[in-house]
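Design request, tokens follow.
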């Protein structure tokens, strides 16, 4: 007898919870932003046309229609993105030009700083004076005066 009473009580409680949960979940379900129809079984469809929108869900209960403003907003968003991309590319190009000009200016300044006037009595075709007092006639800066303690001064 006690077993039967406990079993019936738990069965009644389970049924009450199941029915209550179903009502709460149906009430809590909201229409999605892009839904164009609500089906008879409570689901939503995003179909572009009413024909066949809820064919496997018991038919269309409510038709909301397709919002054209969404398509227009997509077109505007694409145009905005394209304009932003073009602006970024233009800014990137301008920054690259500025960096190149600054680099060239630094190189010129660095070369002018390194070059010194030729001493009286130095050979006319010498490119550098080494730290030990000898002269280098190297065509490139790399390796000039490498066995003489490095370069003391570069000539023009």
């Amino acid at each position: 007898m006690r077993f039967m009473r406990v079993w019936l009580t738990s069965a009644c409680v389970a049924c009450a919870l199941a029915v209550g949960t179903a009502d709460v979940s149906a009430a809590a379900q909201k229409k999605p932003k892009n839904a164009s129809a609500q089906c008879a079984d409570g689901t939503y469809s995003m179909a572009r046309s009413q024909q066949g929108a809820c064919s496997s869900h018991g038919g269309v209960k409510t038709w909301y229609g397709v919002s054209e403003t969404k398509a227009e907003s997509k077109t505007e968003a694409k145009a905005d993105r394209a304009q932003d991309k073009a602006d970024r590319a233009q800014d990137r190009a301008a920054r690259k030009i500025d960096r190149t000009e600054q680099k060239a200016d630094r190189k010129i300044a660095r070369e002018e700083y390194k070059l010194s006037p030729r001493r009286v009595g130095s050979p006319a075709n010498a490119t550098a004076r080494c730290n030990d007092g000898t002269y280098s006639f190297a065509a490139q800066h790399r390796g000039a005066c490498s066995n003489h303690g490095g370069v003391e001064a570069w000539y023009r």
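Comment from the thread starter after seeing the answer: thanks! Residues 20 and 81 are 48 Å apart (CA to CA).
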